[in-house]
Each structure stands twice: as C-alpha cells, then as structure tokens.
Amino acid sequence: MKDEAKDIATQSIEAQAAPESEAAPKTPAKKKRARSSKAKAADANAAIEARIGHSFADANLLMQAITHVSALKSGRKRGDSYQRLEFLGDHVLGLVVSDMLYHAFPNADEGELSKRLAELVRKESCADVAKSLGLLDDIKLGSVGSSADARLRKSILGDICEAVIGAVFLDGGYAAAAEFVKRNWTERMHKPRRPLRDPKTVLQEWAQGKGLPTPVYREVERTGPHHDPQFRVAVDLPGLAPAEGIGGSKRAAEKVAASVMIEREGVGGGNDG
After folding, report:
1. Which residue in 138, 162, 171, 254 is the catalytic one?
2. Does 159 participate in catalysis according to the annotation?
3. Which of 151, 167, 190 is the last residue of a domain?
4. Is 43 inside a domain boundary?
5. What are the φ and ψ backbone dihedral angles of 233, each rounded to 5 degrees?
6. CATH code, 183
7. CA 166 – CA 171 distance, rounded (Å)
8. What's the number of domains the chain is made of?
9. What is the pTM of this model?
10. Catalytic residue among 86, 90, 112, 138, which?
C-alpha cells in the first residue's frame, strides 16, 4: 500500500512538472484556426500583390511597407515600419521618373524637366497612385481609434506608396521597381495635374532666345451673344505663320494661340512638352 501511494504521488508531481506544451497540446480546433489565420494572411498578401503587379519572394518586405509605426509591438524598432523603405523608395522613384522625363521630352531644358519631376514625385501624386491601387485599407495601424484611422491612413498614403516602391526594389531589383513606376506614372507624366507654365510666357522666352521681338496678339473675330462671347485671336512673330486660338475671353484665346504655335514650332517647356 505504501509503495502504491508513493507511485501515485510521483505521477502527480511529474504531471505538474511536465512542459506546458506536453500538458496542454494544441487541440485540432486550435491548429485549424492557426492554419486558417495563415491562409487568410496569404490571401490578403496575394490580393495586394495582384493590385501592385509584383509577386514578392520575401513577403515580409510587403508587410513592412504597409505597416505604420503605431502598429509595431513593444520592443520592435521603428525600422520595422515602412519608414526606411519610404526613404529608399523616394529616391528610386526620383531616378526612374527622371529617366522617363529625359526620354519623353527631348526638347525640354533642365528647368522644365525639374518642374515636371517635382510635380510627379510630390506626396499628393504618390497618394493618388496608392489610392488607385486600393492601398488605403491595407495600411496596418495601431490602436489610434477608429475615427482617427481614416484620417491617418489618408495622410500617410504617399509615404506608403514610396515604401512599396522601396520594397519592390529590394525584392525584385531596379527593373521591377522601374516597371511599377512606369505602369503607374506614364499617363500622369503626359497629363500633368497642374499647368506647368503659361504658354504665353514660354513662347515669349523662346522668341527672345531666337532674337525675335515679343509676340503680338490680335483679335481676329468675336462671335456669340454679349453674355457668352467667343474670341478668335492670332499671335504673330516675324518669319512665322500666324497661329490662332479660340476662347471665352481674349486671354484664354491668346493662351490657346500661343500653345498652337509652341506645338507647331516644337518649342520645349509648354504644357504638352
């Protein structure tokens, strides 16, 4: 009886000292939930990759690119957020867009190329790209409050876009990053959001550079009712055929006329390059 009691006591002590994993092994339900969670994460990553057009060999780079510092667990460094990738992506974007502009606008001078570059790589332009790719709801944020989340996501959209470029560059090299940028910036490059320079100014500077006098604008015709007139204006420069433009005001018609002459003479620096 004493030996039997001793064996029972020994078994009880061993059971208490057993590792937690042995004492409470994962149940099939827990394992199933873990697999389900991983599958959902993989599906989410695949959906993002499909939208941005790049399949990551290192999925951690994609997760880092869309992770805000507020979502980091205690003990993790700020470098585990998108911030370092944003720094890299900003410079990759500048290089790729500069190369695109150089080849797309062979008649543009350095000043004009710089203006176009600044317009294309500004945060607002990057945010537009991120929004068009549906990245707004992919951003991982910490517990900053549901009402603040939407505002914060919008404010960092441009940063996230640059971080994604940095992640694509590290994962697939320059060619992959350049392909991403060209796919999302080519149309924007040819259709700037804002007029780059007044075409009348461009034409005047070009004329002066050629030793010509200041362009002369003259009203050719005015049509339409008094409350909604239409003006046809011609611009003249010695040795060149006049160019005409139509607009709802004289100034608008003059700008159109200047643009017509700029395009016809192949002048760099106008709205259309």
Report:
1. 162
2. no
3. 190
4. no
5. -125, 145
6. 1.10.1520.10
7. 9
8. 2
9. 0.59
10. 90
